[in-house]
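Hey, sorry to bother you again with one of my protein questions. I've been puzzling over a protein and I'd love to understand its fold better. Take your time with it, there's no hurry, and the full record follows here:
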Amino acid sequence: MATIIEYPIATPTSKDHLLGTKLADPNLANDTNKTRNFTVQSLASFTNSYSLGYTVYTAQLTAGAGAAPTATVLQNTTGLTFVWTRIGTGQFLATVAGTPFIANKFWAMVSAKGTEFPSVVRTADNIARVDNILCSTGQALDGIVEGFIEIRIYA
C-alpha cells in the first residue's frame, strides 16, 4: 500500500469522488460507521446549504466618477435583489425590497484597492450606504476601484 504523499496532486472536478465516513446512527441498534464515496459536487452542495445562522451577499464593486456602482455578485444566498445607486460624491446606496436589514441582525464589511477607504452603514431596514474617502485627506472620493462588500443578514 502506498503512503498518501506518493499520490499525485490533482484539481478535482464536480464528479470526482472523495473518501469519507458516514457515521453510525446512535438511534439504530447495531448501526456502524461506513466508509463511503462522496462526490465533490455533493460536498459543495452540502456546504452551501449548511446554515451558519445568516445569509450573505458578497460582491465586487466598481464605479467611475459620477456613476452608480456595478456589482459583480460573487455569492448571494439572501434571495434579495440589491439595487446600487449613487447619491452624491463618494456615497452609494444598496437598496433591497422589504425590511431585511433589522437592527442587531445586520453586519457588513467593505474594502477597496489603493488609497480608498470605504465604510458601510445600515441607514434603514432596507438600505446600506457605502461612503468612500481618500485615505490621505478624508475627502469624498467619487468612484470605487476594486471594492468588495459583504453583507450578512442574521436569522
